[in-house]
Amino acid sequence: MSAAILLRDGFGRQINYLRLSVTDRCNFRCVYCMPEKMRFLPRAQVLSAEELLCVGSAFVDLGVNKIRLTGGEPLVNPRLPWLVEKFAALPGLDQVTLTTNGDRLGIYAKSLKAAGLDRINISLDSLKPERFAELTRTGSLRRVLEGIAAAQRAGFKRLKINAVILRGRNDDEVLELLRFARHEALDITFIEEMPLGHINEHDRKFCFISSEEIKAAISTEFPLIPTLENSGGPARYYRMDDSPISVGFISPHSNNFCGTCNRVRVTAEGRLLLCLGNEHSLDLRQILRESPNAPDLLKSKIQNAMSFKPESHHFDLNEAPQIVRFMNMTGG
Ligand code: SAM
Ligand code: SF4
Q1: Binning pLDDT at 50, 70 and 90, where does residue 229 land?
Q2: How close is the Cα of 331 to the center of ligand 2, in Å?
Q3: Residue 163 in contact with ligand 1 by CB distance below 6 A
Q4: Integer Rg of the chain from CA
Q5: Is 30 in the pocket of ligand 2 (CB under 6 A)?
Q6: Angstrom distance (rounded) from CA 47 to CA 92
Q7: Which ligand lies nearest the alpha carbon of 32?
Q8: Is the pLDDT of residue 195 over 90?
Q9: Of the residues 13, 32, 164, 331, which has the maximum number of CB atoms within 10 A of its CB?
Q10: Which residue stretches of 127-167 are H helix?
Q11: What separation in Å is there between the alpha carbon of 275 and the centre of ligand 2?
Q12: What is the mean pLDDT of residues 285-296?
């Protein structure tokens, strides 16, 4: 059972979903997410597992009933199973979920299941080993596929694939990725690339491909039926007559989803971000470190920050990125 909703922004939206980044570090360097020579934060600037627990607990006391653990790559944080176990035991928190690149799921899937993790989203942009290595710069497709299999064996249900589609790089694999998802009974969501941080690997303007175009390509082979499923976020979901899986599209450019936004993010260094596409933030790390045993102070600061949540974001591929942080800094 969820607690009363105590977080409401200036536009009347109730906030019940937290995306919590447990590290900015990653063992991959996906071309759309970060530069090849990424500089990560000094460890002292990143929230410890205990501080992450304080932050998550404060949000749960304020009525948040779903926490997604993300990063960076959450599974490079060795305290992740501990953190999942602590969150799973919090009364009022209905769902603890994880977004991962899948590389270390082979090692952690069983312990995460035992710790009480509810669901996992796994990023997978290509089924061709060489292309996968190119897009992730350091990743191994084999290990990620093994990770997915390990999560299935551990008993996770409704695993979901997240695929960022880039024109000219992997848009020819949309149908293949969907066939894979159907075969493995995995939900799948196709994501439009967002202009977060400067990257030099490709020009986002030319690689952009809209969800509408991807949907049209899929519909030639698999007719899609819209569903009423709504996560309060940017995704729109569809199903197919001959398969139980859900097919989602995240369209930050072509869909304005801000009106029903129910979420906030906390970065690995403890910045509470009120909106993915804006810089409004509150430094929770400073509050935690200056007043380490003052949960009520932390909660009142979080509650007050809600009034800064902007009404909507604005992404324009023809402008230089307005958001200078990379997705791994944002808590994707
Ligand atoms: N490392 C984990 C992973 O890759 O799943 C979790 C963090 S990652 C930042 C979360 C999601 O953001 C991934 O699905 C990734 O594909 C997506 N992502 C990263 N950069 C993006 C960008 N510029 N535009 C759209 N999606 C992006
Ligand atoms: Fe790492 Fe995830 Fe970013 Fe890829 S998308 S570089 S796996 S944080």
Answers
A1: confident
A2: 10
A3: no
A4: 19
A5: yes
A6: 23
A7: 1
A8: no
A9: 331
A10: 129-136, 141-153
A11: 20
A12: 97
CATH code assigned to 7-325: 3.20.20.70
| Contacts of 170 by beta carbon, 8 Å cutoff, 6+ apart | 125, 126, 131, 135, 163
- pLDDT one-digit tens code per residue, 175-191: 999 999 999 999 999 99
Per-residue tokens: 186: 């995995």
Instruction: Please count the residues of the chain.
Output: 332
Q: Whose CA is nearest to atom 11 of ligand 1?
A: 332
Digit-coded pLDDT (tens) for 69-128: 999 999 999 999 999 999 999 999 999 999 999 999 999 999 999 999 999 999 999 999
Q: In angstroms, rounded to a whole number, what is the distance separating the alpha carbons of residues 64 and 48?
A: 21
For residue range 69-84, list pLDDT tens digits in order. Answer: 999 999 999 999 999 9
Question: Does ligand 2 lie within 6 Å of residue 29's CB atom?
Answer: yes
Identify which of 19, 32, 33 to mutate to test ligand 1's pocket (most ligand atoms within 8 A of the CB).
Answer: 33
Atom of ligand 1 at shortest range from CA of 252? 25
Q: Using a 6 Å cutoff on CB, does residue 195 contact ligand 2?
A: no
pLDDT of residue 228: 85
Instruction: Supply the residue whose CA is at minimum distance from atom 15 of ligand 1.
Output: 123
- The encoded tokens of residue 44 equal 């002292």
The per-residue DSSP string of 287-309 comes to HHHHSTT-HHHHHHHHHHHGGG-
Per-domain residue ranges of the chain: 7-325
Q: What percent of the chain has pLDDT over 90?
A: 74
Cβ distance 196 to 202 under 8 Å?
A: no
* Ligand 2 lined by 9 (C-beta under 6 Å): no
Whole-number Å distance, alpha carbon 33 to ligand 2 midpoint, is: 6
Centre of ligand 1 to C-alpha 327, Å, is: 6
196, amino acid identity:
L
Pick from 191, 198, 313 the residue to mutate for probing ligand 1's pocket: most ligand atoms within 8 Å of its CB.
Answer: 191
Q: 332 by DSSP, 3-state: which?
A: coil
Strands 95-100 and 66-70: parallel
Q: Which two tokens stand for residue 81?
A: 């199973």
